Amino acid sequence: MTDCDLCGRGIPTVIPVRVNPPLLKFAYPEGVWKGLCETCLDSAQKVHMGNDKNELSCRKGKCALCQEKGRVFAVEIQIPDFSQGVVKKDKTLCSRCLKAVDESYIKYKREEIGGHGHGHEHEHEQSKH
Ligand SMILES: [Zn+2]
Ligand SMILES: [Zn+2]
Q1: Which of 46, 65, 77, 93 has the most CB atoms at less than 10 Å from its CB?
Q2: Range of 47's domain?
Q3: Which ligand is nearest to the CA of 89?
Q4: Which residues are near ligand 2, the ion (C-beta closer than 5 Å)?
């Protein structure tokens, strides 16, 4: 069981997203892996898609994934709640993390469509002599 890094939901597998926390830059120059559930990945990706047109949703704050302070975007997260079912809450993500979410999203969807087992397409092209 793993917890989603945004909503805290406990799920068997999370979708990995690589972020680059500025505070851990020296310890982890390659970045660190965060795990998001599908719902959070979906909402964050939607915000990323609307980023260019919707500059108004941009605010000053701290990114929920990499902890960087600066320009962040609000992502609506559904947090599981025992008494109310789900509670909607805004989490703020910086544009770099949103970009990382988008990359993971594309990869995740591709794998989902492609099915499990074999990720490579078979090529039957023969080399010319
Ligand atoms: Zn989540
Ligand atoms: Zn960030």
Answers
A1: 93
A2: 2-114
A3: 1
A4: 63, 65-66, 94, 97
Tell me whether residue 121 is in a domain: no
Q: What is the DSSP letter of 87?
A: E
Instruction: From first to last of the 129 residues of the chain, give the pLDDT tens digit.
Output: 899 999 999 999 999 999 999 888 899 999 999 999 999 999 999 999 986 655 666 789 999 999 999 999 999 999 988 898 999 999 999 999 999 999 999 999 998 887 655 544 444 444 445
**Distance (Å) from CA 126 to ligand 2 centroid:** 46
pTM of the model: 0.81
CA 9 to ligand 1 centroid distance, Å: 6
Which ligand has its closest atom nearest to the C-alpha of 61?
2
Position of tokens 């947090």? 79
Q: Does 38 reside within a domain?
A: yes
Start-to-end C-alpha separation, the chain? 54
